[in-house]
Each structure stands twice: as C-alpha cells, then as structure tokens.
Write a structure and sequence with these properties.
Length: 153
C-alpha cells in the first residue's frame, strides 16, 4: 500500500509495517543492516495530521520505547509524508472492544495507549496521568465500515 492508502484506510491503533522492498542484508557489516532496519520496520499508528493531500499531510507511527523497567527514557516515533516512496502494510487492526486512549480531544490528538477493554484503559490512566485524556472504544461498526468500504486488512 502507499502512504496515502494507510492515511485513508488504517485506523488509529493499527500496527503498520513499512519497507523499501530491498532484501535484508547479512548481519555483518552491521552498518548496512542498521540502514536497512531504518527503512524496514513496523509501529502503531498513533496520529494522522492534515487533510489527506500529499505534501501537506502525514501520519505518525510509534516504533519503540527504550528505558529501564517502568521508566521510558526514549520514545521512537516515525512520521511519514503521504508522498513517501516506501511501501506500507496493515499488519493488524485494533480488535473490537479495545479502547484507544488519546492524550486530548480534537484534530491534534495522539494515541498514547491501546487497552484491551475500558477497565484496563481506566486503570492505565490512573497510573499515567493524562488529565485531558479521551477514551474511544473500537466498535463493530468501525470494523464493519472498513469491510463495506473495502478496507479490511
């Protein structure tokens, strides 16, 4: 899929993989492998910015967290413009009944957690302190709309 197709069809919370479609190099030399991993990985869709016009719109994927124990020291986010030459795949959609926790309401909201159900989302919120958080449950209607509109993964 193109970046535009991900922007239009992938729901927030979906796992999205990206690739430059080159074969994985051998483990050594490690610089070549590191460069390949930079263009071939996956993450969770956490934000869509813009109106869907190439050049002015983008989406952001949460690739990884680095830290020790419960403390996250570094978050790795990747933002892709809709004109990206990389190829994308929806690996997994959020399941029906899952609850998306956004840091705020509105167009600039960013997914901060995907919980398996509302009680888990509320428990997570009680421990992580997002005062303007918004909970959004993934419903069967959203999944059905994806299927009707030809967006099933």
């Amino acid at each position: 899929m193109s970046a535009l197709a991900i922007f239009e069809h992938a729901p927030i919370g979906a796992t999205v993989a990206w690739s430059d479609e080159t074969p994985r190099p051998p483990e050594r030399p490690s610089r070549k492998l590191a460069a390949w991993k930079n263009k071939n990985s996956q993450g969770h869709l956490i934000r869509k910015q813009g109106d869907g016009v190439a050049g002015t719109s983008s989406f952001t994927l949460h690739e990884a967290d680095f830290g020790d124990g419960c403390v996250i020291a570094i978050r790795v986010h990747r933002t892709f413009l809709l004109g990206s030459s990389l190829r994308f795949t929806i690996v997994e959609r959020p399941p029906v009944g899952a609850v998306r926790v956004f840091d705020r309401a509105g167009d600039h909201a960013e997914l901060v957690h995907l919980a398996p159900h509302r009680a888990a989302a509320q428990h997570w919120l009680s421990e992580h302190g997002y005062p303007n958080a918004v909970l959004d449950e993934v419903t069967a209607d959203v999944v059905a709309a994806d299927a009707v509109e030809g967006r099933a993964a």
